[in-house]
Design a protein that fits this description.
Distance between the termini: 12 Å
Order of helices and strands: HH
Low-confidence stretches: none
Number of strands: 0
Largest sheet: none
Mean pLDDT: 94
Shape: elongated
Helix content: over 70%
């Protein structure tokens, strides 16, 4: 499994989905930390985003999207 340059639009492998999901989650969490100046909000956003990313990628894999 490798990550292609166009995977940020529509991930073609579970690894690409996880990678870009975590990158976008990290960017959103950093922006929240910068705006609100709260480590608690940063960690909540990071945890929630990571959980959603894992849930959605595993759901798409289960449904056969990546095969």
């Amino acid at each position: 499994m490798e990550v292609q340059w166009y995977d940020w639009i529509t991930p073609t492998t579970p690894a690409a989905g996880l990678f870009f999901g975590f990158i976008f989650t990290l960017i959103a969490a950093i922006m929240m930390k910068w705006q609100m100046k709260s480590w608690r909000l940063f960690l909540v956003a990071l945890g929630a985003g990571s959980g959603v990313t894992l849930l959605l990628v595993s759901g798409l894999y289960w449904l056969g999207y990546y095969s």
